[in-house]
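for the writeup, i need someone to sanity check this before i put it in the appendix. the sequnce is what the collaborator sent (i think, or maybe the updated version? ugh). structure was predicted straight from it, no edits. if anything looks off just tell me and ill rerun, i have time this weekend
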Amino acid sequence: MYVSIEVPEIDEYPNGFPRYRLKGLFIGPVSSSFQINALSTTYIRLVEAALVEYRLGQSKLKEFWGTHTSLNIRAIDRAISHFESCLSDMHRAINCFTRLRRHKELPEGLRLALNEEKPRFVADQISDQLRAIRNEIHHLEDLVMDGRLQEGQAFALMPDGPETPHPTEPNQTVKTIDRLVIAQRELQFSHLATWLTEMGRFAEKIVAYEIPR
């Protein structure tokens, strides 16, 4: 069996958004409102964390499938944990952003910046999907403890994908790892990377905002 790891790289924001902290220290916060500052800072912190967890999960997933001398269970366990944290951070960040962009105390310039286009990640179809998978992750131990999880059912978030016949080699297959699966739900890595990159772009909008003095 051949394995193809299809987890897109996220090249943007390799160092997160350090300028946000520097501006807060030396210039001032984005608003005179405590809640606006708290929502903005929390959103940026969670997007940074989600980016880190995504990259770590990707790295450990490649390490697992790239280890040929042993079964590197530790690497796949770490990949699962990193992707679980990534999804949880994204879910929490979306909640903060949704509240922030509609807040009545949001400075007008920042309101325009965050509302001139509607990000895809706040659409119900996407935010509900992330919320549902996040809830599956967080409540899975309840199913294990009370016996509702049946033999053969996954008891962790798993990187997975289709296995198809090799196009040129008889009796060989290609396993494509291109999604995360838990219970009856799945999420494509390509979608995850697209949404997370867009969340970073809106974090940059907050960083770039200059409060009128």
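The radius of gyration is 20 Å. Residues 101 and 114 are 6 Å apart (CA to CA).
thx in advance!!
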